[in-house]
Amino acid sequence: MTSLKGNYTTTIDEKRRLKLPKKLREAMSLSPNEHLVIGPGYDGCIFLFPPEEWEKQENKLKNLKVESGEHRFLERVFVPQSEDAKIDRLGRLTISVRLLERAQIRKDVLILGVLTRIELWEPEAYRKYLAQYQLSYEEVAERIYQAQNQEKP
Fold this sequence. Notes:
Blueprint (H helix, E strand, L loop, with lengths): L3 E8 L5 E3 L2 H7 L6 E6 L5 E4 L1 H12 L6 H13 L1 E4 L5 E3 L2 H6 L5 E8 L1 E5 L1 H9 L5 H15 L2
Antiparallel strand pairs: 1-7, 2-6, 3-4, 3-5, 4-8, 7-8
C-alpha cells in the first residue's frame, strides 16, 4: 500500500454513503472482496483503516493488559464501535449513524489521508481542532523532529 495523503471534501448521501476519492482507493489497492474497518478516531474524527493497518491495530490491542482499567476502557470503546465496510463498485461505503453522530457529521465531510489511515471530519470541527493549538505547524514540527533527534543514540 502506498501512503495515504491529501485532503478532499465531499458529502454523505441520504443513505449514509460516502464516496472515497479515487486516489485514496487506488493507494489502498483493495481487491473486490476486501473491506475497510471504520472506527472512532481521536479528537472527534472517524478512522478508516485498510485491512493490513487494521491488523496492526488489532495486534496492539491484543497486547494490552486486561488487568489495567485504562486498557479495558480503550478496548471496550474502540473495538465495539468499529465495523467492517465494503466499498461498492462506485467507490462508496456506508457509515453507521452511531459513528456519524459521534463525529457530528451530517452532510459535509472532510477526508484526510494520513499515511496509514483515512480520517473523516466534520469541516468546522476540523477548523476548531486546528485553531486550538497555540503553536504554528512549523513550531510543532520543529519540536517533534528535535525530540526524535535527541532520542537517537
